[in-house]
Amino acid sequence: MTRHVFEPLINELVSQVKKNYSRDVDAEAKTGLTPCFDISGVKTVSGFPELKFHFKGGADMSIPVENYLAVVDGDQSSTTTCFTVVSDPPEVVTGGPAIILGNFQMQNYYVEYDLRNERLGFNQQQCR
């Protein structure tokens, strides 16, 4: 995701989540994902906001928490979950703008591409 979209997104995510979970900067350094949160000792993860993409033309797509967070570091003493949307490092200048919805965000979605009419369709499903 381009930095000018990514940075405000993660800043808002951290703002909404910091009252329930602390950042795990060690996991961020190890995985390259950011932000990461320590969810140790939590039986039911809650307090993470809805992530909604707003597309040109007025379509909205809500991404479930399990499609934008992943448990990346878990042992018997701690568990960490990280945001799976990524961006280029700040020092990389790209020709963007571009946002790629990867396989993690698109789990359990059918996607239809109408190239002739320049439209994108999506429908949440329980894929098996």
TrEMBL record:
Keywords: Hydrolase, Protease. One of its GO terms (molecular function) is peptidase activity. InterPro entries: PEPTIDASE_A1 (IPR033121), Peptidase_aspartic_dom_sf (IPR021109), Plant_Aspart_Prot_A1 (IPR051708), TAXi_C (IPR032799). Coiled coil: none annotated. Pfam families: TAXi_C. PANTHER family: OS07G0603500 PROTEIN-RELATED, PEPTIDASE A1 DOMAIN-CONTAINING PROTEIN. This is Peptidase A1 domain-containing protein. It comes from Acer saccharum.
